[in-house]
Amino acid sequence: MKIMFINSVIRQGSTGNIAYNIARYCFEHNNSVSFAFGRGNNENFKIKTYKIGSNFNFFIHCAKARLFDKSGLYSSFATKKLLKFIEKEKPDLINIHNLHGYYLNIKMLLNYLLSKKIKVVITLHDCWLFTGHCAYFDYVECDKWLNCCGKCPCKKEYPKSILFDNSKRNFLVKKNIFEKFDPRYLSFVSPSNWLIGLARQSFLKKFSFNCIPNGVDTNVFKHKIKEDNDKFCIIGVAHPWTKRKGLSDYILLSRLLPCEEYSITLIGLSKKQIKVCTESGIIGIGKVGLSELTNYYQKADLFVNFTYEDNYPTVNLEAISCGTPVLTYDTGGSKESALNTPYIIKKGDVDGAASLIQNIKKDFVKDNLFNEKDISSEKMCERYLSYFYEKVNE
C-alpha cells in the first residue's frame, strides 16, 4: 500500500510526533510511505519526505492570515507544487493531520483530492476543520459552529486575526468543500470520543468516524518505583502555557495548599511566567528535554492538568506511563486520556481540587495505573495501519 501523510510539522510538538510515528510504523511494516509537511527538518528520515513551501511562504501566509483572518486559504503556489508531488506519488491513501499552520491552501488541496477520488483519512486533533476560525470554543462557550460562524469571540486566539473577522466566510468555504465529498472516499479519526461527538453535530456528520487514542513511547516514559519525597510533589506540563492551560488556577492552588507539605512544579513556562510562578511559591521551569521530563514525571506524586480546552492531552498519558496518577478538569477529552485514574473534577473548581489533593495525599498508594500496551505508541500505530487497510479495501 502507498500511504502519504500531510501535517503542518514533522517530529515537532504533539501532532508532528504522532503523525511521524504512524508513518514510520507503516514504513516498517512493508508499505511505501511519504510525508509532506510545512515546518521542520527533512533530514535523516527513513521515509520519503517533502517540504511544502518555504520559510518565506510560511511568513507571508501567517502575516496575511493575521490581517485578514483567512488561515488555510493562502499558499497557492506551494500547494500547486504539493499537488504535483501527490500526482507523482499516486498514493492509495492520504492521512491528513493538521491542515492549519499557515502552510497550504486547504480549498485547493481538498478539491483536488475530491476530483481524484483518492482515499483520504483526516485525523482531527482539534475543532478547526469545522469552525470558521478557532481550534477550540469551549473557553468562550460558543456554539455558532453548529449553524454558521460569524462575529467570532475567539478572533484574537489562534489562529489570531488582528484586523478582520472572516469567520462566516471561512465557515462557508469549509462547509461547501465537505458537502461535495463522497463519504466513500473520506473518513475521520480522532483520539477522543468527545471530539467525535462534536464533529458529528457539525457539517461533517455524514462521514464515518473512528476513535483511535493517542499513544506514548512507553520505552521512554517508564514506570519507576517512587522514592519518598519530603513533600507531596505536584507537577503540571504544557508548552506553551496559553490562557486555556489554566496557569492562574495553579497559582490559586498554591495558595490553598500548605507550602510545608506540598510542592508544585510547572514545566514548559516562559521566562515571564517563571517569574510570576516563583512569586507564588511555585517552582517554574522552562522547556526541558525528554529524559529530564521523564524524570520529573517519575518523581512526582500527582500530575495536575487544569486545561480548560483540550482534545486528548498526551501529557496525561506520559504521566500515567511513568506511574504518576492524574487529576484533571472534566474538559474535552482530557478525562479520556486520564484513563482509569479517578480524579476528575469540575472545570474551574480549584477549591475542590485542593480538597481532593489533600485526600489523595492522606490515602496515597503507589501503584501501577495502566496496561502498558493500551497506551503505547506502537498500539496506536497498529490501529491506524489496520484502519488504512480497511479503508483502501472498501
Characterize the structure shown.
This protein is an alpha/beta fold and 394 residues long. Helices cover 37% and strands 16% of the residues. It contains 13 helices and 13 strands. The strands form two sheets. The protein has a seven-stranded parallel beta sheet with strand order 3-2-1-4-5-6-7, with helices on both faces. Strands 10-9-8-11-12-13 form a six-stranded parallel beta sheet, sandwiched between helices. Strand 11, helix 10 and strand 12 form a beta-alpha-beta unit. The longest helix is centred in the first third of the chain and has 16 residues. It is globular and about 65 Å long. The mean pLDDT is 94.
Give me the side-by-side strand order of the main sheet. Answer: 3-2-1-4-5-6-7
How much strand? Answer: 15-25%
Low-confidence segments:
none
Structure summary, number of beta strands: 13
CATH architecture of the largest domain: 3-Layer(aba) Sandwich
Write a compact overview of the structure shown:
By secondary structure, this protein is α/β, with parallel strands linked by helices. The protein has helices spanning 13-28, 55-68, 76-89, 106-116, 167-180, 193-199, 247-256, 271-279, 290-299, 314-321, 334-337, 350-362, 377-392, and strands at 2-9, 32-39, 48-51, 93-96, 119-123, 186-190, 209-211, 232-237, 262-267, 283-285, 302-305, 326-329, 343-345.
